Amino acid sequence: MQNIVLVILLIIALGLILIVLMQRSEGGGLGIGGGAGMSGRTPASPLAKVTWALGTGFMVASLVLTIIAKNNPATTSVIDQVGSDGTRPEADIGLIPPSGDSLPQPVTETAPPRPPGSEN
Predict the structure, then answer these.
(1) Contact 6, 65 (CB under 8 A)
(2) pLDDT at 12
(3) Is 115 in a helix, a strand, or coil?
(4) What value, to the nearest 5°, has the Cα angle with vertex 11 and ends 7 and 15?
(5) Domain ranges for the chain
(6) Which is nearest to 6 in space by CA: 48, 72, 62, 55?
(7) Residue 11's pLDDT is what?
(8) Where are the alpha helices (DSSP H) in 72-110?
(9) What pLDDT was estimated at residue 5?
(10) pLDDT band at residue 33, thresholds of 50, 70 and 90?
(11) Which residues contact 98 (CB under 8 A, 6 or more apart)?
(12) Residue 5: CB partners within 8 Å, gap ≥ 6?
């Protein structure tokens, strides 16, 4: 059920983004600078009505998803499920040494010995 609501929420969000991008800018952000000759409120266009409907649907879907998540608490943490078999992935690639072992010492390269008589 949670996945279904999440998919619906994502579809509504994409629709809301597209509808908002399709609308014509009225100039002046947040209603500032409306200009002379404009009355208090203009009639809502069809795109504005669709925006309101999608915004309401987004809020309702978000609340439903929150309620579902609250009623179905997870028994384990996401951190506990890092490895599919229960192991830490760092131990598999050698970043964390097995217990009781010491860290390997870095390899230092030394120059080969010079033959006697060469002093370059």
Answers:
(1) yes
(2) 96
(3) coil
(4) 170
(5) 1-23+46-70
(6) 62
(7) 97
(8) 89-92
(9) 92
(10) low
(11) 91
(12) 61, 64, 65, 68
Contacts of 44 (CB under 8 A, 6+ apart): 52
Alpha-carbon span 56 to 58, nearest angstrom? 5
Q: Which residue has the tokens 């597209």?
A: 18
Query: Which DSSP category does 29 fall into?
Result: G
**How much is the pTM?**
0.52
Type of residue at 102: S
Q: Among all chains, which residue has been given the structure tokens 């619906």?
A: 8
- Give the C-alpha distances (Å, rounded to integers) separating 9 from 2, 67, 72: 10, 14, 19
Closest CA to 47 of 70, 24, 77: 24
Tokens of 49: 């009505």
Chain centroid, CA 53 distance in Å: 25
Q: What is the DSSP letter of 31?
A: G
Contacts of 57 (CB under 8 A, 6+ apart): 12
- Which amino acid belongs to residue 21? L
